[in-house]
Structures are given as structure tokens and as C-alpha cells.
From TrEMBL:
InterPro entries: Glyco_trans_13, Glycosyltransferase_13, Nucleotide-diphossugar_trans. The chain crosses the membrane at residues 7-27. It comes from Plutella xylostella. It is found in: Golgi apparatus membrane. This is Alpha-1,3-mannosyl-glycoprotein 2-beta-N-acetylglucosaminyltransferase. The cofactor is mostly bound to the substrate. It catalyses: N(4)-(alpha-D-Man-(1->3)-[alpha-D-Man-(1->3)-[alpha-D-Man-(1->6)]-alpha-D-Man-(1->6)]-beta-D-Man-(1->4)-beta-D-GlcNAc-(1->4)-beta-D-GlcNAc)-L-asparaginyl-[protein] (N-glucan mannose isomer 5A1,2) + UDP-N-acetyl-alpha-D-glucosamine = N(4)-{beta-D-GlcNAc-(1->2)-alpha-D-Man-(1->3)-[alpha-D-Man-(1->3)-[alpha-D-Man-(1->6)]-alpha-D-Man-(1->6)]-beta-D-Man-(1->4)-beta-D-GlcNAc-(1->4)-beta-D-GlcNAc}-L-asparaginyl-[protein] + UDP + H(+). Initiates complex N-linked carbohydrate formation. Essential for the conversion of high-mannose to hybrid and complex N-glycans.
Length: 285
């Protein structure tokens, strides 16, 4: 990303210098015809035969030409700037903070194997400041909490929050078997509120405690994050593809993104604005 930014600056600087030099050359040209006019003027004065009106008309024409050229240069400069901005996402991208912070929310419950997930996140994370890790634990499972706490104690960029409402959920008889989903929905609401409302983050990457991430997980989200502000029809970005089998994907196109109406979930990135729309209608399960 920073490489792209440097390039962008260089291109802009080059174009600005180019246009300025061009304008300078244009203006430098001007005195010549003006000199001609003056020479003509003195020549005509010599013969005491001045057509004042014709000369002032010529000067007016020259000045008009100069200002037209200047206007045209400014217009071109503006056009170049706009094109460059459009290529880099325009106004929408400028909405995003220069150095985004994309916290990773780990949704945990009663599996001590959350250790594996945390180890991978720590291992592949390029920068703890950009990607602080926030573990939200439900279920009040002490052994799992002890594992999480060992990470929190050894790394200031990792924190833990406990879902405080451990009350039982009364579920309609028919739905008994789905009780787990009610608890997950309650936990997600709490956890997303914690990161996006209480802590006020602009976006969040959500992972569950049993997810294995790939080495380019963080790069993927850092690179695709600007798309969420560029395209308001995007709801979220997921790193998961349910159909991501070797025989079904194009192995030669690692940069290929698919637009889908199916929610893949798992490792996914959500902006706070979308959470603002979702939380009032968040389902019980
Ligand atoms: C949780 O586990 C730790 C370490 O095994 C233990 O010291 C602590 O007493 C336990 N806490 C509860 C509330 O069971
Ligand atoms: C705890 O969760 C239950 C079930 O979702 C809910 O009815 C209750 O209002 C919650 N309590 C608090 C304090 O949020």
C-alpha cells in the first residue's frame, strides 16, 4: 500500500511540474509578440502616425490569448488531478484514515484450542498497531479463559473481554435444538458492540476460535478494506470461499475477487456503519 502511495505522489509531482514548466514556457513566449507590438508602436510613433486603437486592440487580443492559455492549463491540471483521484478511489477513499486500524475480533467460547488461532494471528500479523487482537469470550469456561489470558499477559496489543450475560436463554420448545445459535447471536451482538460502539473502531475483522488463517490474511484485508468505502453496495469482505477447492478455482489468479450474495462469514471484515444498520434488526438466532 505504501509503495502505491509513493508512486501516486511521484506521478502527481511530475505532472504538476510538467504543467508548471509548460505554463512558464507559454508565458515566456508572450513578451515576444508584445515586443513586436512595442517595436511597431515606436516605429509608428517615429512616423508620427499612431493608430492607438488598433494597438490597444492587439494588446487586448494578446492578453486574452494569455488568459485563455492559462485557463486551459488550469483546466488540464484539474482534469489530471481528478483522473488520478478517480483511479485511487476519489473522495471515498479519502474518508478512510491514512493508517487504518483493523482490530481482529476473535469470538471464543469453551475451546482451549483458541490457542492455535491466536498463535497463527500473532505469527502472521505484520503489525500489532494496525491489527490489535480483541478476544471476546462467552460461556465462562475457565480453562479457555486461562489460555486467552496467557496471550493477553504477554502482549499489550491483545486484550480480552467477557460476554457478561450468562443467563439462560428461554427458547421456544420447537427451537430447543437451536439454542446454541441463540447464544452465538447474543455473543456476536455483544462482541461487535464492544469493538465498534464501546471502543469506537471504524471496522473490524471477525474470526472464530477454530479458524486457520493463511499467511496473506492480513494483507488481503488491508488491500480490500478501501473497497468497502468505494462501493457502498458491498456489505462486507470475507476471506472465505465455500467453493474454494482446487478444482473449482483459478489457481493462476491469486488476486481474483468474487462478488457474492451468499454470506461466507468466518474471516470477514465489517465497517461500523453497516453494524449501525444491522444491530437494531439483529436476530435472536
Ligand atoms: C481458573 O483456573 C485457574 C488456573 O487453573 C485457577 O487458578 C482458578 O482458581 C480458576 N478459577 C475459577 C473461577 O475456577
Ligand atoms: C441477557 O440475555 C437474555 C437472553 O438473551 C436477555 O433476555 C436479557 O435481557 C439479557 N440481560 C441483560 C442484562 O442484558
Amino acid at each position: 500500500m505504501s509503495f502505491k502511495r509513493i508512486n501516486y505522489r511521484r506521478v502527481t509531482t511530475f505532472l504538476v511540474i510538467f504543467v508548471l514548466v509548460w505554463m512558464f514556457l507559454l508565458i515566456k513566449d508572450i513578451p515576444k509578440p508584445l515586443k513586436d507590438v512595442r517595436n511597431k508602436l515606436s516605429a509608428e510613433q517615429k512616423y508620427d502616425n499612431i493608430d492607438k486603437e488598433a494597438i490597444s486592440q492587439k494588446v487586448d487580443v494578446l492578453f486574452e490569448r494569455v488568459s485563455n492559455e492559462l485557463e486551459e492549463s488550469n483546466r488540464l491540471l484539474l482534469e489530471v488531478q481528478q483522473k488520478l483521484l478517480a483511479r485511487h478511489g476519489g473522495g471515498a477513499v479519502r474518508e478512510l484514515p491514512k493508517k487504518p486500524i483493523l482490530p481482529v475480533l476473535v469470538v471464543a467460547c469453551n475451546r482451549v484450542t483458541v490457542r492455535r488461532c491466536l498463535e497463527q494471528l500473532v505469527k502472521h500479523r505484520p503489525d500489532p498497531e494496525t491489527f490489535p487482537i480483541i478476544v471476546s469470550q462467552d460461556c465462562g469456561h475457565n480453562a479457555t479463559y486461562q489460555v486467552i489470558k496467557s496471550f493477553v499477559d504477554s502482549d499489550p496489543s491483545i486484550s480480552v473481554v467477557l460476554q457478561p450475560n450468562q443467563s439462560d436463554i428461554t427458547v421456544p420448545k420447537k427451537m430447543r435444538s437451536l439454542k446454541g445459535y441463540y447464544k452465538i447471536a447474543r455473543h456476536y451482538k455483544f462482541a461487535l458492540d464492544h469493538v465498534l460502539v464501546t471502543l469506537g473502531h471504524e471496522a473490524v475483522i471477525i474470526v472464530e476460535d477454530d479458524l486457520d488463517i493463511s499467511p496473506d490474511f492480513f494483507e488481503y484485508f488491508l488491500g480490500t478494506y478501501p473497497l468497502l468505502s468505494k462501493d457502498p453496495t458491498l456489505w462486507c469482505i470475507s476471506a472465505w470461499n465455500d467453493n474454494g477447492k482446487q478444482s473449482l478455482i483459478d489457481l493462476a489468479s491469486p488476486g481474483l475477487l468474487h462478488r457474492t450474495q451468499f454470506f461466507p462469514g468466518l474471516g470477514w471484515l465489517l465497517r461500523s456503519g453497516v453494524w449501525g444498520e444491522l444491530r437494531p434488526v439483529w436476530p435472536e438466532a
